[in-house]
Structure formats: C-alpha cells, structure tokens
Amino acid sequence: MNINSVKAAYRQENIKASVFRRFHRSCVANAMINNSYAIKFPVYSLVCICLLALFSCNDNDEAGSVTAFNDEVVVPALDTTQLSKHDTTRWAGSDVSKWPASFAIGQVATQEEISRIDIDIMPDGRGLPQGSGNASDGRKIYLLKCAACHGQTGKEGPNNKLVATMTDTSAEKAIGNYWPYATTVFDYIRRAMPYNAPGSLSNKEVYHLTAYLLAANNIIDSSSTLTAEKLARIKMPAHSLFIADDRRGGPEVK
Question: In three state form, how does the secondary structure of 85-145 look?
C-alpha cells in the first residue's frame, strides 16, 4: 500500500457517499412534494439500501475502508510503517527533521532581484537612495501623473486629499496635518503611485514629487532643493501628536 492508493480510495468512497446521500434526499423531497410520502418512501428506502450494499461490495480492498455518516467522511488512521521513505517525507508535517534538503521549487534569489523589492524607507531616512528634487519640477510631474486623482493643487480630489495645514477644520487627514514622518511621503509615492502604474516612477521623479508636496503643505520652502539628508531631518507638523504606547500591566494593544 502506498499514499496514492490511500488517496484514490478516499476520493472513490467520498464520491459514493455523496451520491448515496443526494439520491436519498432527492427521493424523500420528491415524495413529499407529490404528497405521496407514505406510499413512495418505503420504495425509495429499499432502493437506497440496495445502492448502499452495491457501494459497499468493494470496501475491503488493500487501501482500507472509508466510512460515511452524518454528511462526514471518516478516514481510518494511516499505518505509516507501510509507507515508503518518499511517502513519509510527504506526511512529515511540521517535523522539520523529516523534511527533504530541498523541495526543488524556484531558485535562489540574486542580490539584484532582492534589491528591486527591498525598497522600504525607515522613518530616520535609512534606505533613501541618493538623489535630489525640487518643487518646480515636482509640480510638472504632479499635474501630469497625479492631478487626475488628487486635484490640481492636491486639495480637490476626487481621491485622497494631500494638502492641508494644521488649522484645517475639514477633518481630512493629509500630509500637512497628519503624516508624522516626511520620509513616508517618498516611500509611499515610490512603491504605490501613480495608482495606474505603481513603481513606475524613477527615484528622481519621486524626489521632485516629494519636494512639491512638502512645499505645497508649507513644510519646506518651494525654492529649496530636497536631498536624502534634508528629507530625513524634516520634522512634520503632526509628529508630536503621535505618542508611543508605553502602557504596562494590561492586555497588549495590537
């Protein structure tokens, strides 16, 4: 006996049990609908018993039997002593010591492949690529690739509002009144924007856009050049409103 024969027996018996249950239910429903339950049900039951006997005639094959009841299929415990070394590896489950040295799936990622997706930027600026940008060039890119979703000035929508000051009473969360780190602007634009082509912007374009949006929110001067070093040093207006949850003694806050 091997694992394939066990699986085949399971599928076969599961199909038999399913056919039997459906036939029985169909017979009962048909009899009740036609108001002949008392007359037809004994006949249907007799047919079902015959079908059950027919399905059971092959239950004693080498793969072991499978019992069906109450809409459930119960598979007997597998005797792993009769399995080959290959099969026991497949049934090893969480026992790592029995796993093969390799599953022969995929290939080792190259450093170049890893670098293409390892693009996250830390709040303190770690991970920022070298480069620079300015608000003037950023506005041109913004009007071309961003304005359709966020409006001509970042305030109109129809999608998320990007520009707002701390005195904004609209309760909309934007870069100027909610985001705690300036580096997040660069990180989010590079990985997720524009909506119809995320990841298509060059680092240069992202620096330009970041400079434009920070200037539009009155966080940096519109004439300044934004670099990785300068971006990491910017303190956002809403930064002080975020506090670390240092509570102790109660349920951990997820």
Answer: HHHHHHCCCCCHHHCCCCCCCCCCCCHHHHHHHCCCCCCCCCCCCCCEEEHHHHHHHHHHH
